[in-house]
Amino acid sequence: RKEVEQDPGPFNVPEGATVAFNCTYSNSASQSFFWYRQDCRKEPKLLMSVYSSGNEDGRFTAQLNRASQYISLLIRDSKLSDSATYLCVVIIYNQGGKLIFGQGTELSVKP
Amino acid sequence: NAGVMQNPRHLVRRRGQEARLRCSPMKGHSHVYWYRQLPEEGLKFMVYLQKENIIDESGMPKERFSAEFPKEGPSILRIQQVVRGDSAAYFCASSPEQGSSGTQYFGPGTRLLVL
User: Fold this and answer.
1) What are phi and psi of B86, to 5 degrees?
2) Chain B window 19-58: which residues touch A at a Cβ cutoff of 8 Å?
3) CB contact under 8 A, A96 and B48
4) Whether A44 and B91 lie within 8 Å, measured CB to CB
5) Model confidence at A9, in pLDDT bands (50, 70, 90)?
6) Which band of pLDDT confidence, cut at 50, 70 and 90, is reported for residue B98?
7) CA of B59 to nearest chain A CA: how many angstroms apart?
8) Average pLDDT of B38-61?
């Protein structure tokens, strides 16, 4: 079983749509959680950290459910510029801080 | 403050040759991580280094791959006797500290193509 699993998509949505990405992780020692964004297989960039209490950054909302080992990302009012691959990432406790990536979910926002 | 630098950005090698990929971390960062992204796949951790030390190489293939981060100069990922399956994007990331903060800054990557 993969350590971090995501629906690979692609998700094709019109501008203005709300889209939700889901991610599950298998290692209960996972300690820190993030969403990264990768454009056209360029370097990944941190989008936001994910906390149990949930956190919001503009149109983006991330949520963590430790009991279910489940992470989500919600994008509201999607823009053309949101088209990218979204990567679910975890850090496992006491493993040196290396990032464990999901395979990514591709999003394509159409006019 | 310059970001993480990687060179070359693109590298073409024939089977059996050696590939050397360089990574200069951000100023003040002493922790370097290397990741590999095979075509149509996600990023996979390869190795974690601090200055002059390999901390975790659990993601490195057992043969032909090595990494170093000398006291002076960039971190080097070396692939000997490359094969077509080594074709991938290799990203390095640097961090000011080890830990769970996830604050790793990625370089633009080196795209290796093995003919």
Assistant:
1) -80, -10
2) 31, 33, 35, 37, 41-45, 48, 55-56
3) yes
4) yes
5) confident
6) low
7) 10
8) 93
Considering CB atoms only, which of B42, B45, B106 is closest to A98?
B45
Q: Is the Cβ pair A87, B89 closer than 8 Å?
A: no
Where do runs of H (alpha helix) occur along B1-115? Answer: none
Taking only the tens place, the pLDDT of each residue in B24-49 is 999 988 899 999 999 888 899 999 99
Burial status of residue B2 (CB atoms within 10 A of its CB: 0-12, 13-18, 19 or more): exposed
Q: From A89, which residue of chain B is nearest by alpha-carbon distance?
A: B102
Task: Give the nearest partner residue to B33 out of A46, A98, A102, using CB atoms.
Answer: A98
Question: How far apart (Å, rounded) are the C-alpha atoms in residues A90 and A100?
Answer: 5
Query: What letter represents residue B91's amino acid?
Result: F
Alpha carbon distance B29, B3 (integer Å): 11
B103 residue type, one letter: T
Note the pLDDT tens digit of each residue in A19-66: 999 999 998 888 899 999 999 989 999 999 998 888 999 999 999 999
pLDDT at A92: 87
Per-residue pLDDT at B99: 59
Q: What is the number of alpha carbons within 13 Å of residue B110 lying toward its C-beta? A: 28
Q: Using an 8 Å Cβ cutoff, are B113 and B10 in contact?
A: yes
| Chain A nearest C-alpha distance from B46 (Å) | 9
